[in-house]
Design goal:
- The chain is an alpha+beta fold.
- 39% of the residues lie in helices and 24% in strands.
- It is built from 15 helices and 16 strands.
- It has an 8-stranded mixed beta sheet. Strands 13-12-14-15-16 form a 5-stranded mixed beta sheet, sandwiched between helices.
- The two termini are 37 Å apart.
């Protein structure tokens, strides 16, 4: 688990602002859920034999001997909250959330045991047009961040739950012939979660899978039509994608469409955003049958990409407009009052008052990253000052403070 320091948090804020702008453009509303839930919520939704539930969850008993878990992902929590508060039955909802998730796994580049996700969930819509909207939404975000050329969309269909169950048995029947040659993780998954073997990184296992039955050959007709419609919409909108028949996702609740946005700009290929359709999850958690689809993106990895590729505009790093200081101590009270007046007169002004010693004020303003520095003086009874920008002084009087600051900030833009 790690800290996000002020020089890094500005990049997080830039990313979060871009995400919010895109989600607002598509009419999604924010929901906020607690970071801790009853453990059975995740066992019922994710699946008891998944890696997350078996090895990665932070689970503990509270004082009432209730088993609680720090949320390892957001979809189950969002479904629970939406169902609990009556947001689902006979309704459509477009929701999003952001916050920390927790998994006990080996830390790697861009991933920690406390990590952060931005998630999007949509309910009550079963058509392929919703799946397409989620993908188009993410593509628009990558474009706004300058990342569209750095990511690849991988796409697959898992079919209905019945088709998936049929294929699962066919795959197991094939793989048991080669059980001794499988890697240890795949041997364990053979009895518990065999579809995850398709995603194995072991070269020997992948060689065995070359001749394995293909999931697409076992899809039901309705799922085939759904997937064809999705591909048609993406083609019409110029979205490039790669069909990946081995893409299955690690959570049990997915059906039909699954997708991942991956990148190799951080070294080895990694996933920065993934999701799909989960039409059976609401009923699985006790609600009335409601179709759903969504995705989640990893904030740390996206921040790392923006930093590595130098895609954060300098304006996003500029956290301070004006540094305000008094020439001598006797003016401190007047300067504090002036600061309040300026904040009122110039909405959105990011102003820091100098509250330390009065030496090297210009240097301290530069260290603070301020675009402007105003050093207030006194001429008789009247206030005046020197406004510094890019090392150039401009003398102004009290009546001209606001106009001079606004003009200088506009020049900065």
């Amino acid at each position: 688990m790690n800290d996000v320091l002020p020089q890094d948090s500005v990049v997080w804020q830039y990313l979060e602002a871009q995400v919010k702008d895109v989600l607002d453009a598509y009419g999604y509303s924010e929901i906020r859920m607690p970071v801790v839930e009853y453990t059975h919520l995740f066992k019922r939704s994710i699946g008891e034999v998944t890696d997350i539930v078996e090895k990665e969850m932070y689970t503990f008993e509270d004082r009432n001997s209730e088993s609680l878990t720090l949320r390892p992902e957001g979809t189950a929590s969002c479904v629970r909250a939406a169902e609990e508060h009556g947001l689902l039955f006979n309704q459509t909802q477009r929701l999003w959330y952001q916050g920390p998730m927790f998994r006990y796994e080996k830390p790697q580049k861009g991933r920690y045991r406390q990590f952060h996700q931005i998630g999007v969930e949509a309910f009550g819509m079963s058509g392929a047009e919703l799946d397409a909207e989620l993908i188009l939404l993410t593509a628009r975000l990558w474009k706004s961040l300058g990342l569209l050329e750095q990511v690849t969309l991988e796409l697959n269909s898992l079919g209905s739950s019945e088709a998936r169950a049929h294929y699962r048995q066919v795959l197991v029947d094939y793989l048991v012939q080669f059980e001794a040659q499988l890697d240890e993780d795949s041997k364990r998954r053979l009895a518990s979660n065999p579809l995850r073997i398709l995603d194995s990184k072991d070269p020997n296992t992948q060689e065995i899978l070359r001749q394995a039955p293909m999931l697409e050959d076992y899809l039901d007709e309705e799922s085939k039509e759904h997937f064809a419609e999705l591909c048609h919409i993406l083609d019409t909108n110029g979205i490039h994608y790669v069909l990946n028949p081995k893409l299955v996702r690690g959570l049990d609740y997915y059906n039909r469409t699954v997708f991942e946005w991956t990148t190799s700009s951080l070294g080895a290929q990694g996933t920065v955003c993934a999701g799909g359709r989960y039409d059976g999850l609401v009923a699985q958690l006790g609600g009335k049958s409601t179709p759903g689809a969504g995705f989640a993106m990893g904030v740390e990895r996206l921040v790392l990409m923006l930093e590595t590729l130098q895609l954060v505009p300098e304006s996003a790093r500029q956290t301070l407009d004006l540094y305000l200081a008094a020439e001598h101590k006797g003016l401190q009270a007047a300067v504090i009052s002036l600061a309040e007046q300026l904040r009122t007169a110039i909405p959105g002004l990011r102003l820091r008052s100098h509250c330390a010693g009065l030496k090297n004020i210009n240097a301290k303003a530069q260290q603070a990253g301020a675009a402007l520095a105003l050093i207030v003086k006194q001429n008789g009874e009247a206030l005046c000052g020197t406004l510094w920008q890019d090392g150039s002084p401009q003398e102004v009087n009290a009546e001209g403070f606001v106009a001079a600051i606004v003009a200088a900030l506009n020049k900065q833009v």
